């Protein structure tokens, strides 16, 4: 078994063709060890979401290779997809489904038997304090409850790699802290997590490794300690790097 959970080799993603072609990702390479809590940062339009879409099979790479625990996401799509859970920034769900239905449907998608699926859904509903809301339609939930339901849906098939795209957007401070604690527990239990967030405090608190994407390229990568040299915060270092990129 590989000690690397996610390996990206020279990933390129081009949308369109000819004069209308747009290179959203331009030769990204990353190697993320198992057990990492990895922060993926960058301005809007930098290529973060496209990279995530390529990892999860939503988009097909133009060139390059992506391996999840050694499994090629293009050649072995089904096997690779079972290894990853995604909690996207957008609420891409049936808003008329209840909290428990959303998790149950996802468990069914992954072929989890009914009895085991019910047990897993109950575990997640309890863990995210959603008991009072399990029969409530998604559209009627508060922003924080929606985020918890999305995270539960991403975890229902017990993936080895969890990708969180702005998981606390619109969540109040207390609920955000609760989610942080749960994510730390998940990571400490061995789960590999990739986090994108515009809350740099969140990245600094949770992540042990960080990369910055800008204009479809990796422009900085290192440990959190390296990003915080000379008493700087992650946010200060991030702003220095991205502002420098703008002037080049």
List the helices and strands and how they pair.
Elements: E1 4-15, E2 22-33, E3 37-41, H1 48-56, E4 63-68, E5 71-72, H2 77-82, E6 84-87, H3 99-109, H4 114-127, H5 143-155, E7 161-165, H6 173-188, E8 192-196, H7 200-206, E9 209-214, E10 217-223, H8 224-227, H9 234-247
Parallel strand pairs: 3-8, 3-9, 6-7, 7-8
Antiparallel strand pairs: 1-2, 1-4, 4-5, 9-10
Helix pairs in contact: 3-4, 3-5
Note down, in words, how this protein is organized.
The chain is 38% helix and 26% strand. The protein is α/β, with parallel strands linked by helices and 248 residues long. The strands form 2 sheets. It has a 6-stranded mixed beta sheet, sandwiched between helices. A 4-stranded antiparallel beta sheet has the order 2-1-4-5. A hairpin with a 6-residue loop joins strand 1 and strand 2. The longest helix is centred in the last third of the chain and has 16 residues. The radius of gyration is 18 Å and the shape is globular.
Number of E strands: 10
Strand order of the largest sheet: 6-7-8-3-9-10
Distance between the termini: 42 Å
Tell me the overall shape. Answer: globular
The sequence of SSEs as H and E is: EEEHEEHEHHHEHEHEEHH
Report the helical percentage: 25-40%
The radius of gyration computed from the alpha-carbon positions, rounded to a whole number of angstroms, is 18 Å
Number of helices: 9
Major sheet attributes = 6 strands, mixed
Percent strand equals: 25-35%
Q: What is the average of the pLDDT values? A: 92
Structural class: alpha/beta
**Low-pLDDT stretches:** none
Q: How would you name the oligomeric state of the polypeptide chains in this document?
A: single chain
């Amino acid at each position: 078994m590989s000690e690397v959970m996610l390996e990206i080799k020279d990933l390129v993603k081009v949308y369109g063709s000819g004069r209308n072609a747009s290179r959203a990702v331009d030769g990204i390479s990353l190697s993320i060890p198992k057990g990492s809590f990895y922060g993926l940062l960058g301005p809007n339009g930098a290529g973060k979401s496209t990279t995530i879409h390529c990892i999860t099979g939503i988009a097909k790479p133009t060139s390059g290779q992506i391996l999840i625990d050694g499994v090629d996401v293009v050649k072995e799509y089904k096997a690779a997809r079972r290894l990853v859970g995604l909690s996207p920034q957008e609420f891409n769900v049936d808003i008329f489904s209840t909290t428990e239905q959303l998790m149950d449907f996802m468990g069914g998608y992954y072929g989890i038997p009914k009895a085991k699926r019910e047990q897993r859904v109950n575990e997640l509903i309890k863990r995210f304090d959603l008991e009072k809301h399990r029969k409530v339609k998604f559209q009627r939930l508060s922003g924080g409850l929606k985020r918890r339901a999305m995270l539960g849906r991403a975890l229902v098939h017990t993936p080895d790699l969890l990708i969180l795209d702005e998981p606390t957007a619109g969540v109040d401070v207390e609920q955000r802290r609760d989610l942080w604690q749960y994510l730390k527990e998940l990571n400490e239990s061995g789960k590999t997590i990739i986090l994108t967030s515009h809350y740099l405090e969140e990245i600094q608190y949770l992540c042990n490794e960080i990369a910055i994407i800008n204009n479809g390229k990796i422009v900085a990568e290192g440990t959190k300690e390296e990003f915080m040299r000379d008493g700087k915060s992650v946010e200060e270092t991030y702003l220095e790097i991205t502002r420098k990129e703008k002037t080049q």
